[in-house]
Amino acid sequence: MADKLTYTTFDEYQAPEFPIDNPTKGALEVLKWAYTHYSEDELVYACSFGIEGMVLIDLISQVNERAHIAFLDTDKHFQETYDLIERVRERYPNLNIEIKKPKLTLEEQAKEFGDNLWETNPNKCCEIRKVIPLGEVLSGATAWISGLRREQSETRKHTQFTNKDNKFKSVKVCPLIHWTWKDVWRYAHKNNLPYNLLHDNGYPSIGCQTCTLPAFNADDLRSGRWTGTGKIECGLHQ
Predict the structure, then answer these.
(1) What distance in Å separates the CA atoms of residue 2 and residue 20, rounded to the nearest whole number?
(2) CA dihedral 153, 43, 99, 211 (to 10 degrees)
(3) Which residues form the Phosphoadenosine phosphosulphate reductase domain (predicted)?
């Protein structure tokens, strides 16, 4: 187990190391370290409630059943996503699930930037409805947890268990970096986890309904996101 005093803040960042030759490929050990190292007020899990999110929620609940989970509600998510959040609340009643909305309503956004900003300027839409809200969530936190996996895309293949996050001036903890897609689903089925029903209909990666289609490339699980725009990330991990 890594020394819990390896670092405390973004400015003092120094990456610890964790063993991966165990059933969760280091994930549970990373979470135990994180919740020992940071207080509940210092650590936030930003969850999109995809299948990786369900695995992380289950692992987190084994370490800290009152953990702070933040969902960035863009007001454009699929109904299946909102339904899943309620199922999660029922299964893990002690978790602190925060629904974080942007300051601008969709109507206010349209008035200021025009209709369907997600089509005319998707980067600006993501900034307003995801990046800025997460920045607000993390304003009082020292670190945050993410479900990134190295296998997901070229932009994520060098992700470490802990990462210095220059965008949010925090430490980003990524427990699932060594997990494969099969590992994720094997764990989910073994533990009978609730999950977004869109996963059964060709949606391996699920974001806003305006910008998410079924994956058209079996080798790229994120190929259904922002199809045809050249955009590959919402901005949270860039």
Answers:
(1) 12
(2) -10
(3) 43-214
Identity of the highest mean pLDDT range in 10-19, 26-35, 196-205: 26-35
**47 belongs to an annotated ligand binding site:** no
Q: Encode pLDDT of 191-238 as tens digits.
A: 999 999 999 988 888 989 988 878 756 556 656 665 656 655 555 655
List the one residue out of 126, 45, 125, 124 whose CA is nearest residue 88: 45
The token pair that represents 184 in the structure block: 């994720």
Which active-site residues does the annotation give?
A: 234
Query: Architecture of 27-201 per CATH?
Result: 3-Layer(aba) Sandwich (3.40)
Three-state secondary structure string covering the chain: CCCCCCCCCCCCCCCCCCCCCCCCCCHHHHHHHHHHHCCCCCEEEECCCCHHHHHHHHHHHHHCCCCEEEEECCCCECHHHHHHHHHHHHHCCCCEEEEECCCCCHHHHHHHHCCCHHHHCHHHHHHHHHHHHHHHHHHHCCEEECCCCHHHCHHHCCCCCEEEECCCCEEEECCCCCCCHHHHHHHHHHCCCCCCHHHHHCCCCCCECCCECCCCCCCCCCCCECCCCCCCCCCCCC
Instruction: Sketch the domain layout of the chain as residue ranges.
Output: 27-201
Q: HSE-up of 196 (CA within 13 Å, CB side)?
A: 25
Instruction: Return the C-alpha torsion angle 77, 81, 83, 85, nearest 10.
Output: -110
Residue with tokens 């992380």: 56
Residue 126 known to bind ligand: yes
